[in-house]
Amino acid sequence: AAASGRAARPSPHVMVYSGPDLGLNGPTGATYAGGRLWITNYGDNSVSEFGWRSAADPSVHAGPGYMFAEPSAITSGRRHIWVANLLASTVTELNVADGSVVRTIRNVRTPRALALFDGRLWIANSGTDSVSEYSVRTGRLITVVRGDGFDRPEALAVSNGLLWVANGQAGSVTVLNAATGAWRATLRGPRLALREPMAEVASRTRLWVASRDSGSITEISTVSLRMLRRIAGPRYRLDGPVAMVLAGGDVWVADIYGNSVTQISATTGRLVKVLGAPRYRFDHPAGIAAYHNRIWVTNNDNASVTELRLPRRHRTGAAARR
C-alpha cells in the first residue's frame, strides 16, 4: 500500500533471472561493477557475473585458485571486487576486467561485512569482535581495531568520513574515523531499538540501520550522531530485514523472512509500498544492489535474481551503491 497522503508510485517492471548458465546456487551478496552484476553463491562456493542489461554474457568463477568458502558479503571499486569467505576466514580480491584473482587477504576471522573508503578496505571480523583496515593498493594490513563496544560486528557503512559498525550481539553502533580507525562514539540504548542490527545503508548525512529482532529501522544523522526517527510497524512488514540499498530517493529493504522488499521514502521515512506478490518470486531474499534505474535482489532459496526496473524519474548511482 502507498503511504497515506502521497500519490501512489508506479510499481517497477519485474524480470526474474535463473537457469544453469547463470550458475546461481544459494545466491547471497550482490554488487555492481564494470557494467556487470556480481553475485556470491553460498551454496557452491562460486561467484557469478553477468551483464546488467538482461543478464547478458554470464560467467561463473570457481575453483581452488579463488579459495571461495561460503562467500557472502561482496563490495566493489572501479577496478577490483572483494568477496568475504565466512568458512575460510579470508577475503578474495578479484579483477573487474576478467574476474581473475588479484590476492587473498588471510588475516581476518569470520568476515561478515566489507566497506570501502578513500583507498581503504574495512572488514568486519565477527569471529574476533574487531574491524580490520587494509590498503586497497597493496593489500597490506594498516590496522586492527578492537574493543570500542564491538560484539559480533555484522554490517558496515561509511558516511561523513566515519565508519559505522553495527554490532549484532550488543545491539549498538560503533562510530570510527574511516581513515584512521580512531574511536568517535558508541551508540546504544533502548530508544534506538537496535536489537540484532543486521544491515546498514548510508547517504552523505544519514544512516539507516535495520534490526532483525525488533523488525525496525533506525535512522541516524551522521553529522550530529543523533537518532532522527525509528521506522517500524506492521504495515512495513519488516520481519527479517537483512540487506538495504538507496535508490531513486528511497530505501529498499530485502526481508528474508517476509519474502518481500519494502520501499521507504528516504526523506520522510514513510512507507511507499511493500513488494511481495508472486510475480517477484522472492524466496529468502538475502542481498540487494542498485545501478542506474535498476535494483537486483538475490533469492537464496530458489537460485534466482529478481530485477526491478524503476520508472525513469527514479535514478540510482554510485551514492546508492556505496
Fold and architecture overview:
Helix content is 1%, strand content 51%. It is mainly beta. A 4-stranded antiparallel β-sheet has the order 1-28-27-26. Strands 2-3-4-5 form a 4-stranded antiparallel β-sheet, with no helix packed on it. A 4-stranded antiparallel β-sheet has the order 6-7-8-9, with no helix packed on it. A hairpin with a 4-residue loop joins strand 11 and strand 12 (130-135). The longest helix has 4 residues, at 318-321. 52% of the residues are buried.
What is shown here, in short?
The protein has 322 residues and is mainly β.
Uncertain runs: 1-6, 318-322
Radius of gyration, in Å, reads 18 Å
Largest sheet: 4 strands, antiparallel
Q: In one word, what is the shape?
A: globular
Quantity of strands, as a count = 28
The structural class is mainly beta
The chain-level mean pLDDT equals 93
Question: Key terms for this structure?
Answer:
322 residues, mainly beta, 4-stranded antiparallel β-sheet, 28 strands, 1% helix, 51% strand, globular, disordered C terminus
